Amino acid sequence: MTEDTGGHIAYVLGAACAQARRGAEVSIVTRAIDDPSLSPAYAAPVETVAPRCTIRRLVTGTRGYLCKDALEAELPALTEALLALLRDAPAIRPDVIHAHFADAAELAAAAERAFGIPWLYSSHSLARDKCASLGGGDPALERRLARERRAIAGAGAIVASSRDEAERQVPAYDAEAEGRVHRVNPGILGRGEGSAARARRWLAPFLRDATLPAILAVARPIRKKNLGALVEAYARTEGLRDRANLVIVAGLRNGLTGGCPEQDAVIADLFDRVDRHDLWGRVALPRRHDGADIADLYALAAEGGVFCNPALHEPFGLTLIEAAQAGAPLVATRNGGPVDILRSLGAGKLVDPESPEAIGRAIAEWLGDDLRPSRARAARAKAHALFDWDRWAERAERIAAPLVARTPVPARSGGTPRHLVACDIDGTLTGDHAAAARFADWAACRADDTMFAVATGRSLPEARRVLADWDLPQPDLFVTSCGTEIWRRSGAGRLTRDTGFAATLDWPRAQVAAALEAIEIEPQTAYEQRPWKLSYYGDETEAARVRAALAGMRGLRVVASHGRFIDVMPAAAGKAAAVSWVARRAGVAPEHCVVAGDSGNDADMLAAFPRAILPANALPDLDGFRGGYRGAAPFADGVLEGLARFGLAPATILPREVDHA
């Protein structure tokens, strides 16, 4: 390990080994390093990692270790070395390349030009936010941005880990790239069971009382990890230093100096803060560690302590999942991937990373929470269930398949469609796995003249992810973000925004945002704010306040749903408008459209078409709805009931106990 060893290394190894377990021959291509400070293994041209998984190292004229920021100058030589490897050894020429980081994407793009090999891209960490915070003007950073822009434009598909990356960061480079983005939860490389007792013995030389609980952080020593703010939080929060020790594992070092300039600066800053606050004996900053040490520290944090990630922005946060899987409570930055992780786990505290007071307060709350053990146990179970490399590999294989075949994923309907079936996803198609499987069977066997669409409040990447998680079929087209966007198939796994529909959605977005900021209604997270939709938290009472604040503006719609969400959009948008647009373009008459939904953001769509289906679990949002068909069965079975009633599914598709049609 070096100071550049981070979560991305664990990601590559976990992904590669999982793909190999599925029967693929996987080569991890990286740079050969011949450096006296590192093991000779890094200079070996070939190394076996696991059955069918091999590391192949590219040899160039520069053999020593290079910090990642110094790799740019080596890219031409690495590109030539990769092309020579693929040219001289056609037997190992891959079907597809997965490029990790934009530097690797430069090599992948060259391989595609030379040999026609398609490629996927995972950014892991994009520089646009960093560039914005610095105000630009850094030539090296500008060149990195250009490489990232080329990677996003050139990749056949983009595999992202977090919603922030998929829905905010990537589209900031290219708005249409979202049609090639797939969000897939990564897994975690198991470190084995750690020992808290062993961790205490290891830390004893640093601490006056190693029996105290531990506040733990594990991060590379770079400025954006914001470790200094954690020291400040520990020092400033009353009583914290008496209740717990602070343990910061900040990469590997031989001493206070001798590393990369940024590492040396961060380490010096940490030591200075510990010294100024007289924290020696309460803070441990170990110089060296290995994987077993980290497992032990996670076990220690699980015994009455807390794991904290205070990064200014965290692209994903694999260490949070590792800590959760060990049973440690979490405090994490509210910027980036941790938002998704903590929401998925249903536990943890998100904080403003620029507020040491907020960080310290969240840690203190965890330390004093009587329900802490049960909450940590529940989050631990979810962390093991949701983040799994084998599941990731299966999804990645599906994403790569149309690129390798170089054929578009065909729309299921053939010729001119006569019928259109448009369904909401959450609570309509999802909710019961057996019912979802029956709906998938219907979709696979439906008549060729029946077009299937989903109409969801989710973004495109999230709609794709949820359908995949529930083994539901990918539709002929997507109506997303509460009917403000339409995405159509356009190539091998690609979706393209319907620009014709978008052109109808003119609205004063900036003025709407300013008016709602003035009434201090809570906005949803940044990635929920779409080009033609602004989203907030609130019930129907709050929605009334929103309508009042916007009363002076014309051409707007305010939609309240699920008792806690409020969406504001152009009046010309909405699920009804989007489905009607799709039907007109496809030549499907309104009486041949069937729509299904369960909540308030489906109300306009359900009211617009005579053939509307509400499953039995429809929310109180729709209690006043009259018309359509109300299923006796919930979720997808209720939809199938309605389809049978309208002659688009056989009555026998439902098992006898739910056949109420």
Q: Output mean pLDDT.
A: 93
Assembly annotation: single chain
Please estimate the helix content: 25-40%
Strand arrangement, major sheet? 18-17-16-15-14-22-23-24
What's the CATH class of the largest domain, please? Alpha Beta
Total individual domains: 4
Largest sheet: 8 strands, mixed
> How many DSSP E strands?
24
Structural class of the secondary elements? alpha/beta
Strand portion: 15-25%
In angstroms, what separates the terminal alpha carbons? 62 Å
* CATH H-level homologous superfamily name of the largest domain: Glycogen Phosphorylase B
Domain Glycosyltransferase subfamily 4-like N-terminal: 6-170
Protein name: sucrose-phosphate synthase
Family: Belongs to the glycosyltransferase 1 family.
Organism: Palleronia sediminis
Set out the fold topology.
Elements: H1 7-21, E1 26-31, E2 46-50, E3 53-58, H2 75-88, E4 97-100, H3 102-115, E5 119-122, H4 128-134, H5 139-154, E6 157-160, H6 163-173, E7 181-183, H7 196-203, E8 214-219, H8 227-236, H9 240-243, E9 245-250, H10 261-276, E10 283-284, H11 291-302, E11 306-309, H12 318-325, E12 330-333, H13 338-345, E13 349-351, H14 356-367, H15 372-386, H16 389-405, E14 419-423, H17 433-445, E15 450-455, H18 460-469, E16 477-480, E17 485-489, E18 495-497, H19 499-502, H20 509-518, E19 534-537, H21 540-549, E20 556-561, E21 565-570, H22 575-586, E22 593-596, H23 603-608, E23 611-614, E24 629-630, H24 635-645
Parallel strand pairs: 1-3, 4-5, 5-6, 6-7, 8-9, 8-11, 9-10, 11-12, 12-13, 14-15, 14-22, 15-16, 22-23, 23-24
Antiparallel strand pairs: 2-3, 16-17, 17-18, 19-21, 20-21
